[in-house]
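Reopening: C4-dicarboxylate ABC transporter still failing for me.
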Amino acid sequence: MKPLGTAACLLMSSTVMALDSVGLRIATIEAEGWQLEGIEIRLSEFAAPSQNIVLSVQSLGLPAPFDEITFVGIECSDFSWRDEEIHCFKGRAEIKSAWLQSPAFDFRFSIGPRRSEVRIERLKAGGGEVAVHASVEDERWALQVNSRGLQSDAIKPFIDSNDFQIGAERADIDVLAEGPGIELDKLSVYASLKGLSAQATDGSLAGEDIDAIWSLRAGSATGNWQWLSRAEFSKGGLYIEPWFVELSPETVSINSAGTWYVDSRRVDIAHVDFRHPGVFEVSGSGQVKTIPSLSLEQGRFFVQAENLQSVSGIYLDSLLLGTPAEGMSLSGRLSADASIHNNTLLDLAVDIDGLNVSDSQSRLALTDGIGVLHWSAREGPSKPSVFAWQQLQLGNVPIDSAKISFLTEATSFRLLNRTRLPLLGGTLTIDRFDWTARENDEHDLFFIGELEDISLEELTQALDWTPMSGTISGRIPGVDYRDNKLALDGELTIDVFDGRITISQLASSGLFSEFSQFYGSVEIENLDLAQLTSKFKFGRIEGRLSGFVRDLYLENWQPATFFAWLGTPDDDDSSRRISQTAVENLASIGGGGATDLISRAFLGFFENFGYERLGIGCYLHNGVCQLTGVEPAEQGYYIVKGGGLPRIDVMGYNPRVDWNVLLERLKRITMASDDVVIE
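Support: Ran it again with your exact input. Result attached.
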């Protein structure tokens, strides 16, 4: 380069007095990967006090990694060329590359034996303005790009793919990159995106009208990359299947730092932090494998939520749409510590304070819950959990203030202590409760408990049944559900209506399948008929009732066979009276001939009648119910045998009734049937 400069000076000096201008043309100059083609130097205006010297270059090619860029149409009005260096201090040029065709812009460059650089200012590109500084010194290169006001079309070529499209109303992007040779070992990025919109082609990810800021600093040492990153989001909407969140004006931020091990394709996340001010924060660390697929090898994360109501409204509501929990919302405070191994939750500890749960469908409600919950997927000893509440509502059934202690191990749940739950004016005592999840959505369950003085009035009101008075008490022996089969270990006794109901031989198979089977027997002892019938439209009956349902077998909850009897016990010495309404309804159950009109007329004179005994039995087999009464009559059987004054008998004549027909009669129980005669 030095001899060329000397020749140019000699040529120009020898012709100064004879010419208006003089020029020098050089085909090519190459230096350290820089290549200038079509160089021309012109000197003019000799008569003027100062001459004008201009350098023009057809094209300037840059060394790797900038070799995709070519400057063309270069005009330099302020330059120097000496000591093997070319300096252009004031130039204009255009750019041609695979991704950019620019209008003319201001630039400057220097080419020397040790250091060369290019500076671009006010480059109009992508709807905005770009400034570029690229340099090479010895074996090291650096590139700095500062852009303002870029439009979507300018950034799409660098981000869009077959799987993802992105756009923004405005983008300000700053990039600083350095490296040796053609390699990269330092990278710094700052991007401010306004009105960001993005969408995955498979519909699993989308964003709309988001304002975002992202910064990244990364450096490579010994072939591995270390990074520090921060992302901020405000306004707009984000969808990550099946989760949608409307971003609030508060800035949501994600900070992360770690190392990318290139050879092993592993990422060591030293720290990651997600913050939504005033709502919740998640922080943690972990190791991620990228081959053969992306997976979290190890991770530990901490959650701090001071406002579960905001978490529920912003993050959970859309996630719960279409699930059994749709319509549920939370409030209170929560902190959690979670460990993950190979994409699977390994350990979880949760502290809960002031938890409230509401449900728009009134399935569940909780007031002022507090506790510490521990769960582990590991087999072996785990920490106990405790949870307490002021009020718990399951459907319309309230459970007052209580506390439970339990143990969760892998796929099991077990109560640790005998637990008393205040329920409907009485108490449900749970002596044992074990639950275990099995494969194929199967579950094992074992339960032992006791009911004490549960109010029938409150229970029937909660279940929207016909109101009844009295209380229920009883012992619940071992209820064992295993391998989709339910079995009762002993007898279930219920004290109700001043008598007792005992359920035994209880068993079931395929309980939640398409073909369920249920077996059992029921013994009824000395129920007070006045308490039992006082709240029903059936009509009032005074006296006692005993009976049984034996060899009960149901298929898909429909009776297939049983032998049942309900009637007056032999030792009943109570007052026995029956109302006119009850007589008519009992009469509608029997079967046979016509109704005695005289008896019906007689029935209308009295509201209540005395009776000696009443009873009805049914043996169901092959869809037919064989009916019986308290004793046989000349024709048919007695359903009610009268006694005292006024006295009335209810007779049934048809001993065989189709089961479905009988069910229809029971549904229309207030209508008297033509199949009985009242005498």
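The helical segments are 2-13, 152-159, 308-320, 456-462, 529-533, 580-587, 597-603, 659-667. If you still see a failure, please send the error message rather than a screenshot.
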